[in-house]
Predict the 3D structure of the following.
Amino acid sequence: MADCVFCGIVAGTVPAFVVASSPSGVAFLDTRPVFKGHVLVVPRTHVITLPDLPLSDLPEYFGFVRRIAAAVPPALSAQGTFVAMNNIVSQSVPHLHTHVVPRTKGDGLRGFFWPRRKYTGDDEAAETAELIGKEYRRLSVAETGRRE
């Protein structure tokens, strides 16, 4: 879709700090992260909500989300992740996207009141994206025996 910012990121016409990509989607840093390392994972096809995603795309898409969620904690020394998706309500961009947010006990996140934290600049964002992407690639090779 021509006016969708996430479609632009997928196409490479809109700049983003890309963490990883696969045939099913693209993962990149949220520009308004809850915590540094907050990743958005989007399918390559323009769909607005999870019910719009074709059943045939579910295994590959959620496999990609799962690998990103596995990569974030060791890449950032986090204890875990919060994985979430909005459908219509609170969906700031009308393109399906899954949030993968690094979590550490005592990080201050309470319920759905998400304070936002900014990167100090593009260098820090690029470094964070590279750390997660490197761990994602390591996990992907270990899991599948092939590079994506």
